[in-house]
């Protein structure tokens, strides 16, 4: 499905990003893994196969020069850039009282999740506009739907005339090391996994199915492939219908 295409995945060393990288390679793409976790990212690339198919580039998505270098590295290494996946993201500390929330935490989350996505789009567009083709996909969250997500749609409207597609994937809760780390330290890793899994499944709309990083990666592969060649400006919800349900009504008993 992705044979002959070149992809760059930010935050590709672990979690959802790692699943995307693995699935992209499985479907024939050449992949540049961009991440701040140098040891983990390089080890992943070494384990995945030959250097002519996958490469690592250090990248802090809050630093424009890093993002530019990662994009240029992908082009220099593999000859082009067809797919840009803005996956790098962090979670802020758990805080139920806005009066207790530190501005520095907000700024850090905004820098990585919003500014980092913007920089990824900007430098991918630098390569894709002259090529008159490309696919930019940003990983968001169902939590952003409540407030509305328009960033990817605005860029889709701008880049459409250049043949570049821009989409977004918003998953429901996924158990990853990052999400598990948000739980109190009093829980062991295994206890935290069980608690998080229960929290996700108990609130889910689609019962009997647990969302995995591979499910999110499958959605990204679809949007990156030619099967989605006329899809742009879309926010693909991978949430089992959670965002379509008014949980206050509870019309349908589970």
Multimeric state: single chain
Q: Main beta sheet: strand number and arrangement? A: 7 strands, parallel
Compute the number of structural domains: 2
Helix and strand pattern:
EHEHEHEHEHEHHHE
Distance between the termini: 38 Å
Strand count: 7
Q: What is the strand content?
A: 5-15%
CATH topology of the largest domain, anyone?
Rossmann fold
**Mean pLDDT level:** 87
Structural class category: alpha/beta
CATH architecture descriptor of the largest domain: 3-Layer(aba) Sandwich
Order of strands across the main sheet: 3-2-1-4-5-6-7
InterPro entries: NAD(P)-bd_dom_sf (IPR036291), SDR_fam (IPR002347)
Pfam families: adh_short_C2
GO molecular function: xanthoxin dehydrogenase (NAD+) activity
GO cellular component, one term: cytosol
């Amino acid at each position: 499905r992705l044979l002959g295409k070149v992809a760059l995945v930010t935050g590709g060393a672990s979690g959802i990003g790692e699943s995307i990288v693995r699935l992209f390679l499985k479907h024939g793409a050449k992949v540049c893994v961009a991440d701040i976790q140098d040891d983990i990212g390089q080890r992943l690339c070494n384990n995945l196969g030959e250097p002519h198919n996958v490469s690592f580039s250090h990248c802090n998505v809050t630093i424009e020069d890093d993002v530019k270098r990662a994009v240029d590295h992908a082009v220099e290494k593999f000859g082009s850039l067809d797919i840009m996946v803005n996956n790098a993201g962090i979670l802020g500390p758990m805080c139920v009282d806005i009066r207790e929330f530190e501005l520095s935490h907000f700024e850090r989350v905004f820098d990585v999740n919003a500014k980092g996505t913007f920089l990824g789009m900007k430098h991918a567009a630098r390569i894709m506009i002259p090529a008159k083709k490309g696919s930019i996909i940003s990983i968001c969250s169902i939590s952003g739907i409540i407030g509305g997500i328009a960033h990817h749609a605005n860029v889709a409207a701008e880049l459409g005339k250049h043949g570049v597609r821009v989409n977004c994937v918003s998953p429901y809760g996924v158990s990853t090391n990052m999400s598990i780390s948000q739980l109190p330290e009093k829980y062991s890793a295994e206890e935290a996994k069980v608690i998080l899994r229960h929290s996700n499944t108990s609130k889910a709309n689609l019962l009997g199915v647990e969302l995995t990083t591979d499910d999110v990666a499958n959605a990204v592969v679809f949007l990156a492939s030619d099967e989605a060649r006329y899809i742009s400006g879309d926010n693909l919800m991978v949430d089992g219908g959670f965002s379509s349900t008014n949980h206050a009504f509870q019309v349908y008993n589970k």
